[in-house]
Amino acid sequence: MTITDPPVTDSRAEDGGTAFDQLIDRVRAEFDTQFTWDYGRGRDGLNRLYEKAKRSQWNVSDDLDWSTDVDPERMIRLQAEVTGVPAGFPARSLLDVDGSPVASWNDDEWVDFAVHSQCASLSQFLHGEQGALLCTARLVEAVPWIEAKYYGSTQVVDEARHVEAFARYLDEKMPTTYPINENLKSLLDTVLTDERWDLVYLGMQVVIEGLALAAFGMMLGTTQEPLLKQMLRYVMADEARHVAFGILSLREIYDDLPADEFRLRQEFAYEACDRMRRRTLNAELWPHFGIDNADIEAALPGREAQQRFQHILFSKIVPNCKKLGLLDHRDGWLRERFQEMNIIQFEDWENTAEALNLEGRVEDSEAPTSFDPDALEGVEVIDDPIHASRTD
Amino acid sequence: MTTTEPLPDEHVRDAAFDFRSYANDPDRIADFSRSNDDVNSLISVVEDNADAIFTWRYDKGERAALDKLYEKAKTSQWNGQTDLDWSIDVDPYAVLAPADPAEVAYFADNPDSPLHKFNEDEWLEVGVESMNWSLSQFMHGEQGALLCTAKIVETVPWIDAKYYAATQVVDEARHVEVFAQYLDQKLGGVKYPVNTHLGALLDDILEDSRWDMTYLGMQIMVEGLALAAFGFMHQTTEEPLLKKLLRYVMSDEARHVAFGVLSLQEVYQELTVAELRDRQEFTFEAALRMRDRFMRQEVWERMGVPVKDMVKFSLEMPDELRLFQKMLFSKIVPNCKKLGLLDAGDGWLRDRFTDIGVIEFEDWVDTGEEYADLDEVAKDRELAEN
Asked: Which of B44, B74, B146 faces A153 most closely, judged by CB atoms?
């Protein structure tokens, strides 16, 4: 039998923007759904996180000002002016490379590129959020603890809201949407197909969400567009809870894990980080400008500006891996890998679970507002990171 | 571009299964009415065979009715801790006596009844145990709904449905939370594990890889029955905390059933007669299980009453006394009609619903229409503002 979707024409494809090869993607999932018959709520950290999540819900339709006019080109020029970082950075550093494919680009072209780069970033946020939506729904099914099912359910609705927000922003305010980056997609598929539910946590909550949190922070620190700023602030407040969820849950699991199993988690974390690093090359973006990805892959990773940009993206993942014991377990295998990736310096940055104050004994006073500004605690806004890295 | 997705292999049903003879056969029902004796296990595992589906079509509002439902769900969220008054004292003996006097008389006065010799204390105990049993089953059912709805988020290919279903996941978690807390704090804890019939139905729904079956089983059948059962309990209980809890849960449930009706209407228009027949049989099988779960096998067992005799005696109850049993189907039947399931093919499902005496509800209001009227949370907030 078939279920038929109504005939579809992709308007964006006709606009000369993005053509998605297909409209849906299936991922075969082999895992067990677990009922728990123990309804007792003994995990206090998760209980507090659940209560906090309930009070911190917001509504994309009402809480963001969609009447804000967005002129993407103006937005990019203003950002360059205010931050002092030229449009198109860090890719723009390729200008200095001999035989660079972008050697002839003038400032207008870099602005155009930066607009598309912003679209590409927001598109990956969008697709990543959908991946998070599916992964979190899976977690609700697979995790055997009632407190994690409760909290996880709030995250499902958070992720749906994020998809909604990014999709609407791209649709109403930006010129185009890019398809999902293949490195991101393959990581999401790995996470969704694995039968071990703790790897869903590790891949999704710690690595993908951790990277997203840093990326959102970077964008929030640089953009001057008020609607995007507000949207990112709200999304980040949710994301900080999500990462905390991963840390609180995994710590309990990892305490009891045999050494060989633990090593598998280290390798998984490294693999996931490696794929996320490759995603920052924006392979879906360059062909749009007639540039071969191979040229970019050869030149861009070596640029210091690109490296700094990339490293900051790992500023949340590394301390969280440390907190989970993943860095130094046994022979410190993951520490060595992170040293090779030049991201070990973030190991003592503030940990997301602590930053959310979930470890403390005193819960914040409860304010039943539609949006809880307290949830922003622990969300570290990286102010103007690129500019900072250029002047130091 | 058109996406035509073949669904995985049809679920193979036992062709020899005679629904008609099972439906009203007390021996066979009772044989399957062993109570769940696996009371010590803390988890139970069901294999999930479904594909997770990414959609790259993010156009919100393409399905306007689902979009409206999503927006409604966002603004009608409530908090199980702060919106209910948990300081209310509940005396289970004084407040919770839900039995219908005519029904009690049938079991008390009839010399063939296994409850014939029950004294007043024992009847009180039936009431208290039945309440704990009912709420325990509601709670287990809500956990099933939580898992099924999470599965729908993964498996449905429409973005509007993924958005809406996400709100339902958090609704279902809230329902598990409040029923668990009520049982724990007010009724001395959960005494009853999941009923065999309910558990079997939940497992079937979760194991099926076709996403429309998850909708049909969970949104139309389990939630439709829950909506009716909550309504009944809400009318009969005078306990203010439980009354409000049920009002709020019901206002969510009405959206959930509407979600099923709105989504399946679209899907079923495309199905062949044979495919629809498969859905009809699934529906009827689920209906029987839901009916049979309400025979409270576990309560009778706990009270030392022969279960088989009780089932037999319950099935022989005169039609005019079966008010509660019938009312359980007051949402399911009109919703099935709205979906075209009653009369598809040769009207197979109409005949089966006639056999079990519930066809009279076919023209009652369907939930695709009434969910907005049932939004008690919104009503309370309006009142509070004025």
From this structure: B146
